[in-house]
Specification:
Layout: H1 2-56, H2 67-81, H3 89-103, H4 110-123, H5 129-134, H6 149-154, H7 162-165, E1 169-173, E2 176-179, E3 201-206, E4 211-215, H8 223-226, E5 232-241, E6 244-249
Antiparallel strand pairs: 1-2, 1-4, 3-4, 3-5, 5-6
Amino acid sequence: MSLLSDSCHTRYHAALKLQKVYRSFRTRRKLADCAVIVEQKWWKILDFAQLKHSSISFFDVEGPESAISRWSRARTRAAKVGKGLSKDEKARKLALQHWLEAIDPRHRYGHNLQYYYVKWLHSKSREPFFYWLDIGEGKEANLVDRCPRSKLQQQCIKYLGPKEREAYEIVLEKGKFVYKQRGMVLDTTEGEGAGASGSKWIFVLSTSKSLYVGQKSKGTFQHSSFLAGGATLSAGRLVVQDGILKARNA
């Protein structure tokens, strides 16, 4: 009887934990959708037609476009995403991708999410974006040519917490880049994956001017990982040999 009671007790607590996790995820998804809804309503107040041009034709870069149209779209996109003035179209596109990725409860790769975001805009659905994507009218959407649903679900970006972030922090000691936590000299030309084809080492400089460096892994670890989607002063790629900066691309 005691064993039966213990078994029931264990099942009860397991079910309770599962329910809490589900509710937590559902709450995060609702908050993310609120962010999308607020953004959409804000632009309805300003100019819905302008929003439509900015959001949809923003990704259609194949057709010819006048200088006036480009400037108009640059201005509206910069204000819409809230990242300040953008210098070029690529920067504005990345801003939207990172915004979608940051507010997604699963942090799916923003580059992939953008295709489904555009599909949602074209669908004119009244459902919030993330609800539409995961359990609503768009749950069966599968953009095979651009980003299959399986790829969308698999590629989720790791967002570092404050403690995890410390392992990537770099400081300058005696003219060399050094890991603050371990005291080791940074060298992106040696070690596992350093010489691999296409291997990239990336960095971000936080608003508090802390420098973080790590190896990029497409669809898993990128610039937004370091600060969990937070604001940066600078970001890019670098090459460091024995603690000496050899090349930088920001």
